[in-house]
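Running this now, will post back.
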Amino acid sequence: MSNAADDPRITDIIESGVIRLALFLPQYATAADGVVTPLGAGVVGNALIGTLAESLGIRMELIEQPSPPAAIKTLNDGGCDLSILGVEELRWQLADFTPPVIQFDFAYLVPVGSAIQETDEVDRPGCRISVPSGHASWMALKATIKHAEIVATEIPDEAFAMVQAGDVDAFALPREQLIDYAELLPGSRILTEGFGYNIGSFAIAKGRQDLLDFMNEFVEEAKASGQVKRILDEADLTSRGFDVA
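Update: finished.
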């Protein structure tokens, strides 16, 4: 954005010298040496806000959180300035959102030997679906599943462990994340048809209207200029089901 460093709407951030972006699992991975690597939607958030920080002459700080609810709490407690989240009705009550940035679909992973072939076969009595609580995929299931049992876990790895152990019939998450989990469970399958879409936007704490107005313009310009599409292509996320929203 031209003259962003002089924009009075973000004077507080510029004067602080840092813009803080919260990512939650599995939007990042932490190596043994403590180095944080953004993943999936985290790649997009990291690249966009990193570019913004550079244009403002300040630094970006990644705030690592275990889950979307934890990221939203951090946002509202003042521990970060932004997070990139799936836009859901319940979340509108907790935070404000920019225009959509990216989208990708939710899907099911089923274990080796599963008789389930199609997505519509999952929602049946006796079928158990593991999913991390508070994630957008969990919210989508809560709104659509009528017969199957939803088994909520704290984090995605716990939901995956349940399908590994044979305790559930399917594991629900964004498709691009399931691709990595499928490699850890030989013979498992990701069902071709998804069960909904995640529309990702930047979340901002309610009451920070100036920052919201600024970020609204920033997002629209990033999409119109092709910056978001370039980030997706360069990170090979387009091939994993991501697109510009």
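The chain has nine helices and 13 strands. More later if anyone needs it.
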